[in-house]
Design a protein that fits this description.
Helices cover 35% and strands 28% of the residues. The protein has 353 residues and is an alpha+beta fold. It folds into three domains: 3-98, Winged helix-like DNA-binding domain superfamily/Winged helix DNA-binding domain (Arc Repressor Mutant, subunit A, Orthogonal Bundle); 106-248, Endonuclease Chain A (Endonuclease, Chain A, 2-Layer Sandwich), CATH 3.30.870.10; 256-351, SH3 type barrels, CATH 2.30.30. The strands form three sheets. It has an eight-stranded mixed beta sheet with strand order 4-10-9-8-5-6-7-11, sandwiched between helices. It has a five-stranded mixed beta barrel with strand order 13-14-15-16-17. Strand 13 and strand 14 form a beta hairpin. Helix 2 (17-29) crosses helix 3, helix 2 crosses helix 4 and helix 3 packs across helix 4. The chain is elongated.
Amino acid sequence: MNEATLESRLKQFGLSEKEIKTYLTILENGEAKASTIADDTGVSKRYVYSICEKLEDRGFVDVNDHVVPTMISARPPEEVIELLSSRLEEIEPALDQRFSETAARKQRFDVIKSRVTVIKRVREYIESAEQEIMVAIPEGYLPEVADELADARERGVMVLLLISDVDEPASILDGQDRQVSSVVRAWSRGLPILVAADEQMGIASPAEMVTRSNSDDRAIALVQGQIVPIIGGSFLANYWPFAEELYVADPVALPQDYGSFRHAVLQATLHDRAEATVYARATAQRVGEDEEFRTISGTVVDTHQGLVEPATNTIPIQHSLVMELDGERVTVGGPDSFLEDYEARKVTLDHGD
């Protein structure tokens, strides 16, 4: 990296031109007197002291005024980089709190008139899912999306699959050579086709759109962060609890970071049932309080959930971790929680010592 580029990078961390010149001079000397730095930079000795005090406050140099003359030394670059990185990490929760995911994804609302387009859009949203996806689809159309579901599962997405119009639940997954879902449930009744991916992309369609060739029904497909969670909530509250559980995947290896809080709750539940200790670290704030998000950590002692049987939540949309925190048990939910003690943006699960 040439000197001009280096100076440009340092400016991005808020250093002025004179501060940069002073800092680079100290780096080249390793340790120097204020008079030496003043001679090399062409600024007054008094101004060198002022600049060095600022550089010391930022962690770039150390000023030793316990000796005569005062000596200024550069801190090892790796320590400076580590310090800058930690400061960036400290502000990440506050930035996340202010960042609107819906603003980052272009909103969209489409009315769909054909079966082919419905299936095409289902595939598209499954392929685009990064954290979680809920899908309700008739058994006869499972083969048309099975590969996309298996791909999503293999890239770490939590997949909740509800298969409708099922005659023989025991054989429903016969012929599938890959795991298509984290949890599979079946229902003998006909249900709407529903998709909710990452709380951003959704589909709601009458089943007749794909099961009848002459249907006049219409489906909707949308990318909208305020409406799609309603589709997901309907899936979890009105259909998922009443379907028969056919398959639950094994818990994944830890540690893992989760942007989907429901996925973290599912994995914590599965590990707990396997009698493995689970430790959670979450970026969270107390519900109902206007405080900065901070890191909380503790052992997971229980979960409230309805993703796998037996359900332990009090209402279908409740999915939370019960953690041992500073000697007391607290409940932690996902973004916009209101039943729990804390709401969390991100969570990391690991095995406790």
